[in-house]
Amino acid sequence: MIITGRDYEHTLAIPRTEDAPIRYQPAELGPVIQTILKGEPFDAAEFTLAGYIILRTRGMLDVTALPIFPARSFFHSCLWVRHDSPLCSLDDLSGRRIGLRDYSSTTSVWFRGHLKAHHGIDWRANTWVVGPNRRFPPPPEADVVAADGDLEDLLVGGDIDLFFSVRVRDQKKPLPERALRPLLPDPQGAEADYYRQTGRFPLLHVVILSRAAAAKDPQAADAIVGLFEQAKRSALQRKLGSTFLPWGEARWNSTMALFGGDPMPYGLTPENRAAIETLIDYLHDQRLISHRPDVDDLFQPANAMAR
Name one Pfam family in it (predicted). Predict the structure, then answer.
């Protein structure tokens, strides 16, 4: 059985050799998602959490999910504006033209939901300029237009007010040559404050399992969960990510203090369940799903989570 997903430090300990009964196959996530959306066969794979919930509410029943969340991210660090922009806070974003790579991406859903819930800015109040990645169509109420060029270039040229992106090419330039800056003066500080206030470290991806693979091996769900848990424990023990860069140990210690020793808990813990329910509320409010599914119905029971 093959698990396909991104190459993370916390999955390094999952076997990758051909002779392993369950092996991890690192891959770029975009093509993996497209393969699954086309209905092509797979065993288990990393998938976007919002996309999975959308598919399940639209009747896709040949997959289920395991409560393994290999990717999370805050969104405050994804907000880019021009250096000369008057915008400097999330409260400034009503009525703006905002660039998104994919309107229905999980990070975009979290961002729009946060704007409405915490800043009173409804998603209908903005124009969303989107790139070519359009996995799920937006609702007719959304003011969505197709980008007529590269989104970062549109921001630099003043055609959009803000670009929502994990990274931008501009940041590779020397400081004096950069045309863009973060919207917020201290994005990481804002993210830490958001976590302290809400208890949410936004879930982005989930591991899904084809029902065909589950039927072929009834122990697959437990086995996969166990492999992910063991690999994450190994990463935490080795402090992966802290040894290569300067100040890595100090950053590691402060991060672990903030998150109680584990920034990425697996399982349907109270924290994870609350985050999933929040995402479901955002998806429903943004008209990307027609009803709110029960969280437990979305996941395959896995006895390994209880051990």
Answer: Phosphonate-bd
